[in-house]
UniProtKB/TrEMBL annotation:
It comes from the Eukaryota. It comes from Lolium multiflorum. This is CCHC-type domain-containing protein. Residues 76-109 are annotated as: Disordered. SUPFAM superfamilies: Retrovirus zinc finger-like domains (SSF57756).
Length: 262
């Protein structure tokens, strides 16, 4: 600050006058970051001071900054962490917390009965017969699935969609079986188209329609394979009355009178 004031005085003696505002800006820009609050207040209040007046203001600001710095240093040195009583006792005594003794593993009792072979003296997990059957595949683990359901696994929004999906799955199974029999060459009539009966006119119309309809966009693509089977002549879908549909008593809870008619 003093050096800049001296340079400005020398330039004025040489006839080069520096504007007061330019000198003030140069001084404010050269200040360290600790004076940022002072610079902000000076600019907000739009003070038009001379360099000597600015020098006096900076001296008073420097004193305030030093006081704030001393307060911060005192707060940092007086801060400490509290330690628990248990930790202090452990450090003084140097003893570690006692761990409970580990119980030794015991084997099966002589009268213990195996749930698999019904013999005594061992458990099921140690049974040689059970382990051998488990390895050979005769025994399934609990998490393994050894069954399959033939029910429809998709939730349909309408009866037409449900019948359409059922007809598609039935046609896929029938076409696979037909192609297998044709390869064997045992049944000559296997080359004829398979007839699938359906009691829903909407499902029949959608299966016989080769074009994609916007109402069927939500149905998965794999269920539209029935259209290809019908177009290739492998499957033929026909209408059957609900009272004459043989699949109803096998899949639905019908009244007794209607069930007896079938």
């Amino acid at each position: 600050m003093l050096a800049m004031t001296g340079h400005a005085k020398k330039l004025s003696d040489l006839g080069i006058v520096i504007p007061n505002r330019l000198g003030i800006n140069r001084v404010l820009q050269s200040l360290p970051p600790s004076y940022k609050n002072f610079v902000m207040n000076y600019n907000m209040q739009n003070m038009n001071k001379e360099l000597p007046e600015l020098f006096a203001m900076l001296k008073s600001a420097e004193i305030e900054i030093k006081k704030e710095h001393q307060v911060l240093m005192v707060n940092k040195t007086t801060s400490f962490k509290k330690q628990g009583k248990s930790k202090g006792k452990n450090k003084k005594s140097g003893k570690k917390a006692a761990t409970p003794p580990v119980k030794p593993k015991t084997g099966p009792k002589p009268d213990a009965e195996c749930y698999y072979c019904k013999e005594k003296g061992h458990w099921k997990r140690n049974c040689s017969k059970y382990l051998a059957d488990l390895k050979s595949g005769l025994v399934k683990k609990k998490k393994e699935v050894s069954w399959a359901s033939s029910k429809q696994c998709t939730v349909a929004k309408s009866s037409t969609e449900s019948e359409y999906i059922a007809a598609s799955e039935a046609s896929s199974e029938a076409v696979w079986m037909k192609r297998f029999i044709v390869e064997l060459g045992v049944v000559p009539s296997a080359l004829d188209p398979l007839v699938i009966y359906c009691d829903n006119m909407g499902a029949i119309a959608n299966a016989q329609e080769p074009r994609s309809h916007k109402r069927l966009k939500h149905i998965k693509l794999r269920y539209h394979s029935i259209r290809e089977y019908i177009e290739d002549g492998e499957v033929k879908i026909c209408k059957v009355h609900t009272d004459l549909n043989v699949a109803d008593p096998l899949t639905k809870a019908l009244p007794r009178a209607k069930h007896d008619q079938h």
